[in-house]
Amino acid sequence: MFQPLPVFVGLRYSLAREHSFFVSFITWVSLVGVALGVAALITVLSVMNGLESELRTRLLSLTAHATLNAAGAPIRDWQARIQQLRGSPGLLGAAPFLDTDAMMGRAPSMSGAIVRGIDPALEPQVTSIEDTLREGKLTDLTPGSNGIILGRMLAYQLQAGVGDTVTVMIPGTATGGGDAIVPRLRDFHVVGIFEVGLQEHDSVLALVNLQDAEALRGLDGPTGMRLKFYDVLKAPELARIAAARLAPGLQVRDWTQDNEAYFRAIRIEKTMMGLILMLIVAVAVFNIVATLVMVVNDKRTDIAILRTLGLSPRGVIAVFMTQGVLIGWIGAALGVTLGLALALNVDVIVPVLEQTFGFHFMDPDVYYISGLPSEVHPGDVVRIGMAAFILTLVATVYPALQAARTQPAEALRYE
Fold it and tell me: In this predicted model, what pLDDT tens digit does every residue of 168-189 receive, in sequence order?
């Protein structure tokens, strides 16, 4: 026998095979319930993390981490300002841009679009546009050529391909003055097609050379500059540090502000999924309470004998808490192991399930993201494991207190 005595007795009660079948069955159900709940939580949250990361990557593929703009006014000295930004902490690159809301047409189709003027030499420093090109090259956007690169869905809506001509129309004012609005029209030649995999980009965005965009708008400079940093999660803080290097007057916006609705929805969904799946662990915890209550009733005589031999009420509590802690440890450990095995092999398991049962988790005809990406965060694993363990520990309190209240004389009266 080893010390302390309450732990020794608690382990004997947990590992002994003399329980009734019903008590043993509920014990195993409780342990499996904790393990399945933990595994499900780790797997689902890892998939949610992967989807969030994939969505963030696609959103930022054509959108920089932060932007500096002058409230719609042109920035004439943008080259000098980009030079001033060099050496800013964490900055990987900076590039000018000029966005214009426009109507784009090619008979008989017409669609709304955002025409973005870019510098082809600097654009790869802030976006991954070159990786998304399906046809053409970024260098085809030469100044004065009126070349344009369309998103795949926008090109489909306009029934336009490489080599075709599309007409861009933007509102403008009459040359003679006054308030009359006269549209400006300009023909552009399609030199490329890109596909990001998000409707917000593929169905509305078109890229042209910065000088062509300036000529279309009648401006003599871009309306903003886009910045890219080494760490996207630190971009909001680093963008404000970079802006402080420039003369005042530029507004700072980062990707969390531009895409706030997307990521707030994902956070809410992750929270709700976590709470729902935690109910599996809660059911297992209730089973632990029931198991220990039945063990307490079954061991009333043993408890009374231990009390008469000098075991304190606190020691009795420790005996039955040991049982709950053992179930919690084993269940949480098995759940973490199973959850990590599933989360780290989602890309292997999901295709096998889809092929076996003939269905798709993410139908490629409906979703842009057809696979289930997984990204395990160690912090999530630790929090889930600790939460399961704490719940099982709390579940032992009531049965342990009931056992400590056992009166030796009352329990041994009819023995």
Answer: 998 875 555 555 567 788 999 9
- Name the token pair of 65: 């981490």
Structure tokens, 396? 């032992």
DSSP label at residue 136: S
DSSP-H helix ranges across 299-377 = 300-308, 313-343, 346-357
3-class secondary-structure state, position 321: helix
d(CA 58, CA 52): 10
Question: If 0-12 CB within 10 Å is exposed, 13-18 middle and 19+ buried, where does residue 191 land?
Answer: buried
Task: Give yes or no for a contact between 40 and 277, defined as CB atoms under 8 angstroms apart.
Answer: yes
Q: Where are the domains of the chain?
A: 5-57+262-411, 66-254
68 strand-pairing partners: 225, 252
Please give the Cα distance from 238 to 228 (Å, whole number).
10
pLDDT above 50 (res 292): yes
Residue pair 94/124 in contact (Cβ under 8 Å)? The answer is no
Query: 15: helix, coil or strand?
Result: helix
Please tell me whether the overall predicted TM-score, pTM, comes out greater than 0.90 for this model. Answer: no
Q: With contact defined as beta carbons under 8 Å apart, do 78 and 278 qualify?
A: no
pLDDT tens-digit map of 293-351: 777 776 777 777 777 777 777 777 777 777 777 777 888 889 899 999 988 888 888 77
Torsions phi, psi of 324, nearest 5?
-65, -40
Beta strands of 124-213 (E only): which ranges? 133-135, 147-151, 165-170, 184-194, 205-209
Pairing of strands 91-106, 66-69: unpaired
Length of the chain: 415
Burial 218-248 (b: 16+ CB within 10 A, else e): ebebbbbbbbbbeebeebbebbeebbeebee
